[in-house]
Each structure stands twice: as C-alpha cells, then as structure tokens.
C-alpha cells in the first residue's frame, strides 16, 4: 500500500521499524556488523580519509593557521572570565578562573556539535526523493545511541542511496577545498570543520564500502528500520 507524500516526519528514539515492509525471497540483506561494531570498524578508514583531506588543505593553508582557528573561541572565554571576576564580591580564588573557562567552553562545544550534526543530517535529507519533503523522510535523534539520523523509509536506486551517503562529505569536506582553491584564499576554521566532518562521516564511509562491495549497480535498496532492522536490495 503506497504511503501518501506530505511532509517529513520528526522522531525522537530509534529509527522506526517499517511495519508494511516484509522482505520476501526477492530481497537480499546487506551483510554487515551492528551499529556499535560498525562505528568501531569505521574509525580507521575515517582517520585515513581525514589525513588525506588534511593533506589537501595543507596546500592551501599552513597547519599552524588551521590550529589558530581555535583562537576564535578564546576571546569569548576570556571575556566571560574577566566579567565574572569583576562582578565577584571577593578576589577570585586561583583555579576558579579555569573552572569558569571550562564551564563556558563545554556548552559552546555542545552547541557547536549539535549545530554541525543537524546540518550534516539535513544535507543527507536534501538528496532524499522530493528533497526530503515527504512522509517517507524521517529526521530524528536516537538518544540511547547518541546519534541524530536522516532516514528514508522507502525503496531507492543504488545510485540515489550512495548519493545520500556521501553528500555531507562532498558538501562539507570537499566543496570548501575546491572553492578555497579557486579563490586562492583559505580559512583555518573552515579547514578544521572540513576535516572533522570526515571523522563525523565515518559510518557513511564504511557503509559506502560495505554496500558497493555487495550490491549490483542496477539494484534497488532500502532499509527496514527498527533495532537491527537491516538493509536489503533486489534487482
């Protein structure tokens, strides 16, 4: 029974199981590890890719300039510490300034990671059928696994599936290198985000290798959703 196209769904919890999809003999499973094992196995390929991206950036901007991008945050931290010290009724005890710095930096890191993760998943979503604006597209957060997700609850071509997987890598990691190379100008902060995104795409990179090694190029592919629901393909 077809699902009507309306708007994407938002979901908190695990990826919803597709109750109307029951794979028959025409569907074959994509063999692979569970979620946690996948994340662990994906670390090494991601580190190799991240090193390659860092090497590309090194032609555009010195490594010291990449590292100096963190100086964007430090004036904010110092300002809050000095403001707090000025408002304190007594002289600040040694070490308290460090604790305040940590209290300022930690929420900033959490906010930055959350914004990055949301943008990463929205890039995945943007290449779903109908640009992600259908009831089959689900944007959610899986608290127990500490991961956000963009999931398409339907059948797509292998080319579309692989495009969904790699689009955040292309848009966030490689397009900035190309643009900066053309313009002849580079940003240390942009380089850091580009490299970190490769690490954040570790699962996508691993799945790319897993699927291309098992699924024919003319196949259709879809997920079943749910805990350990798996991914299936057919010709």
What's this entry about, in short?
Helix content is 52%, strand content 12%. The protein is of the alpha+beta class and 235 residues long.
Features:
235 residues; alpha+beta; four-stranded antiparallel sheet; three-stranded mixed sheet; 7 strands; 52% helix; globular; disordered N terminus
Commentary on this structure:
With 235 residues, the protein is of the alpha+beta class. The chain has one domain (9-20, 27-234). 52% of the residues lie in helices and 12% in strands. It has helices at residues 35-41, 43-58, 63-67, 74-87, 96-126, 158-183, 188-200, 202-212, and strands spanning 9-12, 28-29, 137-142, 147-152, 156-157, 220-223, 231-234. The strands form two sheets. It has a four-stranded antiparallel sheet with strand order 2-7-6-5. Strands 1-3-4 form a three-stranded mixed sheet, with helices on one face. Strand 3 (137-142) and strand 4 form a beta hairpin. The longest helix is centred in the middle third of the chain and has 31 residues, at 96-126. It is globular and about 55 Å long. The two termini are 20 Å apart. Mean pLDDT is 80; it is low at 1-5 and 87-93.
Across the major sheet, the strand order is: 2-7-6-5
The percent range for strand residues is 5-15%
Number of beta strands = 7
Structural class: alpha+beta
* Contiguous helical run count: 8
Overall residue-averaged pLDDT value: 80
Q: What is the H-and-E element order?
A: EEHHHHHEEEHHHEE
Q: Characterize the largest beta sheet: strand count, sense, and whether it forms a barrel.
A: 4 strands, antiparallel
**Overall morphology:** globular
Helix content: 40-55%
User: What does the radius of gyration come to?
Assistant: 22 Å
Distance between the termini: 20 Å
Question: How many individual domains?
Answer: 1
Low-confidence stretches: 1-5, 87-93
